[in-house]
């Protein structure tokens, strides 16, 4: 029997509808429209798609979207100057710098320059520290989206063994912190695996909840998964796949695939996220939630 599909796209639509209603109430009460400033440096095609998705999502939610598209040759000092202006602008409630940045720019220095109160990606050291202590300003968008997917799908995390493949600052590490926290969507026993982990399949087969976030196409196979496990695929990779067209002829196409071999793993897992349509839409949704949350905090502090 195939795994139950965890439809992140549908869930994202439901959460965005909730956010839209909350934004409307907030605007009515405060006369302030939540605003997200997104900075894109260069011509990275994937980044341009992500930015367009964020812009469209903002508009649909009733928020103001401020787009700053800068050329590839933009310097660190020019970018820091723009961030400084946005930090001081009372009408901007969230600032997001689309990654990756050109290699000539010091990524950490740029992210650290965003004031914690407007850091809707939750990358600033202050926000990371607050997350580790269980008193966050913001929660990082992809891990928070995954946590919402688990909670709203009524998948129990308390006492479960969660295994995360990947130790990035964007997904792996903060995901571990969220699952470790006390309360709903937490209380799990967490193992974080990475490129230096020995006997990886032995560890992943122990997972009640397996989260793959390593950026390697179809890396997780059926023999690495415990029967009935929840499998969350964070990967977004391009891979040539052989398909049969309408004339019955085989051809190679460039397809979007995750870090999980979906076709084999779905026959073993109890629940699984697809790619696309799984975690991705929830990431953008939680950016909206954080922007609204930022607006609430900043208005309350005035």
Describe the structure.
This protein is 39% helix and 19% strand. The mean pLDDT is 94. The strands form 3 sheets. A 6-stranded parallel beta sheet has the order 1-11-8-7-5-6. A 3-stranded parallel beta sheet has the order 3-2-4, with helices on both faces. The chain contains 10 helices and 11 strands. The protein has 2 domains: 31-115, Leucine Dehydrogenase, chain A, domain 1 (Rossmann fold, 3-Layer(aba) Sandwich); 141-280, NAD(P)-binding Rossmann-like Domain (Rossmann fold), CATH 3.40.50. The protein is an alpha/beta fold and 302 residues long.
Concise account of the structure shown:
Helix content is 39%, strand content 19%.
Topology diagram in text:
Layout: E1 4-5, H1 8-30, E2 35-41, H2 45-60, E3 64-70, H3 76-88, E4 94-97, H4 107-113, H5 125-132, H6 141-152, E5 161-165, H7 172-180, E6 189-193, H8 200-204, E7 209-212, E8 230-233, E9 237-244, E10 250-257, H9 262-265, E11 271-272, H10 280-300
Parallel strand pairs: 1-11, 2-3, 2-4, 5-6, 5-7, 7-8, 8-11
Antiparallel strand pairs: 9-10
Helix pairs in contact: 1-10, 2-10, 6-7, 6-10
Radius of gyration: 20 Å
Q: Rough shape?
A: globular
In percent, how much strand structure appears in the residues? 15-25%
Number of separate strands: 11
Low-confidence regions: none
């Amino acid at each position: 029997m195939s795994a139950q599909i965890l439809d992140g796209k549908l869930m994202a639509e439901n959460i965005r509808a909730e956010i839209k209603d909350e934004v409307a109430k907030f605007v009515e009460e405060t006369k302030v429209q939540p605003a997200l400033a997104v900075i894109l440096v260069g011509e990275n095609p994937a980044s341009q798609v992500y930015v367009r998705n964020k812009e469209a999502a903002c508009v649909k939610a009733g928020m103001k979207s401020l787009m700053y598209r800068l050329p590839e040759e933009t310097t660190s000092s020019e970018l820091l100057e723009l961030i400084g202006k946005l930090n001081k602008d009372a009408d901007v409630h969230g600032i997001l710098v689309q990654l990756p940045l050109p290699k000539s720019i010091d990524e950490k220095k740029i992210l650290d320059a965003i004031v914690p109160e407007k850091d809707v990606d939750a990358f600033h050291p202050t926000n990371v520290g607050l997350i580790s202590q269980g008193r966050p300003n913001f929660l990082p968008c992809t891990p928070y989206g995954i946590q919402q997917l688990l909670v709203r799908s009524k998948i129990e995390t308390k006492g479960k063994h969660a295994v995360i493949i990947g130790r990035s600052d964007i997904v792996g590490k903060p995901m571990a912190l969220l699952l470790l926290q006390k309360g709903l969507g937490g209380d799990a026993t967490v193992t974080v695996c990475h490129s230096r982990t020995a006997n990886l399949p032995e560890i992943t087969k122990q997972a009640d909840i397996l989260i793959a976030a390593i950026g390697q196409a179809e890396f997780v196979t059926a023999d690495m998964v415990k029967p009935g496990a929840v499998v969350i695929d964070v990967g977004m990779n391009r891979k040539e796949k052989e398909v049969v067209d309408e004339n019955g002829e085989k051809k190679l196409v460039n397809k979007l695939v995750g870090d999980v071999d979906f076709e084999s793993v779905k026959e073993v897992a109890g629940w699984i996220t697809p790619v696309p349509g799984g975690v991705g839409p929830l990431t953008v949704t939680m950016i909206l939630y954080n922007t609204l949350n930022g607006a609430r905090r900043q208005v309350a502090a005035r």
